[in-house]
Design brief:
alpha/beta; two-stranded antiparallel ribbon; 2 helices; 8 strands
Length: 127
């Protein structure tokens, strides 16, 4: 079921498919997010902040334990967690990517996670 969520996290029925809205696909959740419920405003705030920092983002993912994520154009998934510290998380992510490129080992990551700024990581190899 597709729904809209406002900036305070209130869920409402989708009235139409409006161009330009950020689409967030929910992963890892069995129950449907029902209209007239509310999600954590930190999820919405983080998604809007990432979109403001990277306006080319059209689709994001949300996983209950990993937080907000996206598919990087270079072929891997990156998770940013939630909250409004996305400028710092994006900087840490870009620093990790630079290290991987400079390493040049040929082993490319399939996942980056900067949701916890105290322990960012990436995974190389098969999922």
């Amino acid at each position: 079921m597709r729904t809209w969520v406002d900036v305070q996290g209130y869920v409402m029925p989708m009235r139409s498919d409006a161009p330009g809205l950020l689409r967030i696909v929910v992963d890892g959740v069995d129950e449907v997010i029902a209209p007239h419920s509310r999600i954590d405003p930190n999820i919405v705030g983080g998604a809007l902040q990432l979109r403001a920092l990277r306006p080319n983002i059209e689709v994001m993912f949300y996983h209950p334990t990993e937080g907000l994520g996206l598919l990087d154009g270079r072929g891997w998934r990156v998770y940013f967690g939630t909250g409004t510290d996305m400028p710092q998380k994006l900087l840490v992510y870009e620093t990790l990517v630079d290290r991987v490129w400079q390493n040049g080992s040929g082993a490319w990551p399939h996942l980056f996670d900067v949701g916890d700024l105290r322990a960012p990581y990436y995974r190389v190899g098969s999922e």
